[in-house]
Design a protein that fits this description.
Blueprint (H helix, E strand, L loop, with lengths): L1 E10 L2 E9 L5 E5 L5 E7 L5 E3 L7 H6 L7 E2 L5 E2 L3 E2 L2 E2 L8 E2 L12 E7 L3 E10 L10 E10 L3 E10 L3 E2 L3 E2 L2 E2 L12 E13 L5 E7 L11 E2 H7 L5 E15 L5 E6 L3 E5 L9 E2 L2 E2 L6 E6 L14 E2 L5 E10 L1
Antiparallel strand pairs: 1-2, 2-3, 3-4, 4-5, 6-16, 7-10, 8-9, 11-12, 12-13, 13-14, 14-28, 15-27, 17-26, 18-19, 18-20, 18-21, 21-22, 21-23, 22-28, 23-26, 24-25
Length: about 325
């Protein structure tokens, strides 16, 4: 396996670098020290053509100008916290009356410290570390976070997250990669099949915050227990998905028949949030084409959103000197 680096730009006096991790099959995993962004994953289709299967910009300026979280680590807390309220703490309100994705100038918008990780011959990785000071976006506690991306000879991306705080705080991060298995985003995700091992999904109110109700997926547009074509799912639910599913066994699977590529996700996290990019018609260019509805699909592994307001959801409170550990594994197959 081989590591190469590419200069990507500067933020103030900090250099932004893109790391290329190449395996023996010619598959390449790319990531930036800015936002711990996954900027590209190049894997073969059924005919051996190696193409990129995540959405990403070509320049640092675009990542900074269009904060849609493409490929970035999001936190301290992914998703929404209603009214930005937790105990007596007021968090940054950066989506109307709610707090979303950790606030402003946070994990996805800073330069991380990095270190090369090499595990003999079967994997190569980058370890990202960041310190979030007490009071940032209203969160209590100094938080030390480590995110490690490993890339293997089996075209598997392993993401490990660890964190510690010196004071009770909240922690529920995610990686916000948008996948498109057609390769180089040459088709939309409407011909992707999605399967989620989940019996319930979170009902949401008009402001997209959970109501606290976990509703059965059976006989609804949210039933992905067997593989479902996304175009059939969107016909049932034209507004598209920005939906949290509580996982039964931590598994999500997606494939695209034309390319023959599939993605299998296994996670220790409680849930996956599916964001179908429905209606995401934007002026910027991503992967060489104008961003449009259904160009990608985000599969965000995390604990359920707004857990602080719903006792029946898994707690996202991190206690002093308690170590948060979580892992999500993404395996790309043909």
């Amino acid at each position: 396996m081989e590591l190469t680096k590419r200069h990507y730009g500067w933020i103030d006096n900090q250099e932004v670098v893109e790391y290329h991790l190449s395996n023996s099959q010619g598959a390449v995993f790319k990531c930036l020290n800015y936002g711990a962004i996954v900027s590209g994953i190049l894997v073969p289709d059924k005919d051996g053509h190696v193409e990129n299967v995540v959405l990403g910009f070509d320049t640092l300026a675009d990542y900074m100008d269009y904060p849609a979280y493409f490929g970035a680590i999001v936190g301290r807390v992914a998703g929404r916290i209603k009214r930005g309220q937790w105990l007596d703490y007021k968090l940054t309100l950066n989506e109307k009356t709610n707090h979303i994705h950790g606030g402003e100038n946070t994990f996805s918008q800073v330069v991380w410290q990095t270190k090369l990780i090499k595990n003999q011959t079967d994997s190569l990785g980058i370890q990202f570390t960041h310190h979030s000071p007490a009071g940032e976006n209203g969160y209590p506690g100094n938080l030390a976070i480590t995110v490690t991306y490993l890339w293997t000879n089996e075209n598997t991306w392993i993401m490990n997250i660890e964190a510690k705080t010196d004071r009770q705080t909240l922690f529920n991060p995610t990686n916000h990669s948008y996948f498109n298995l057609s390769g180089n985003a040459k088709r939309t995700i409407l011909d992707h099949q999605l399967q989620i091992c989940s019996n319930v999904y979170t009902e949401i109110a008009e402001d997209k915050c959970p109501t606290g109700q976990l509703l059965p997926v059976q006989n609804t547009a949210y039933d992905f227990r067997k593989p479902v074509l996304m175009k059939d799912a969107i016909k049932k639910y034209p507004n598209g998905y920005d939906t949290a599913f509580k996982l039964a066994n931590g598994k999500v699977r997606m494939n695209e028949l034309k390319s023959g590529r599939s993605l299998e996700i296994q996670t220790t996290r409680e849930a996956v949030v599916v964001f179908s990019t429905t209606g995401m018609d934007e002026e910027y260019v991503i992967n060489g084409r104008k961003m449009c509805s259904h160009l990608g699909i985000a599969l965000e592994t995390q604990e359920l959103p707004d857990a602080v307001h719903h006792n029946q959801f898994q707690s996202i409170v991190l206690e002093p000197n308690q170590l948060h550990t979580s892992q999500t594994v993404y395996q790309f197959l043909v």
